[in-house]
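Colleagues,

For the teaching module next term, I've prepared a clean inverse folding example: a structure given as tokens, and then the sequence designed for it. I'd like students to try predicting residues themselves before seeing the answer, so please don't circulate the second half yet.
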């Protein structure tokens, strides 16, 4: 079973940057497509970005396109989310997730989830 653990969250001022990391416990993760989702207080969890395992193809939600970058290091079993030009509306708990199936923007298609890391952006 794949276990995922996020780190790198924190408090940052608007316009600042953070880099989130998601480490996986199983080597089989490298054949999994990886996604980042976030959940703000009182709101449903929403898709942020995904990256495919084979080609490294990426896809972003419109709300973060041009500001966030997802990447992966298969040698370290880790996926990253570089977040620049942060806005107060980016405040949320960020979760990474993995799926052995086709990459997706739907959380229902992901099998394994991390516990999440809090990102707070002050205005």
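(Answer key — instructors only)
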């Amino acid at each position: 079973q794949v276990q995922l653990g996020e780190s790198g969250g924190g408090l940052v001022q608007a316009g600042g940057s953070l880099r989130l990391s998601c480490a996986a416990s199983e080597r089989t993760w490298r054949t999994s497509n990886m996604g980042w989702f976030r959940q703000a207080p009182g709101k449903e969890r929403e898709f942020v970005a995904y990256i495919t395992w084979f080609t490294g193809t990426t896809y972003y939600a419109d709300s973060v396109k041009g500001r966030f970058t997802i990447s992966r290091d298969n040698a370290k079993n880790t996926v990253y989310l570089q977040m620049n030009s942060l806005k107060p509306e980016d405040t949320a708990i960020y979760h990474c997730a993995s799926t052995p199936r086709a990459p997706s923007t739907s959380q229902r298609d992901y099998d394994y989830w991390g516990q999440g890391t809090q990102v707070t952006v002050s205005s």
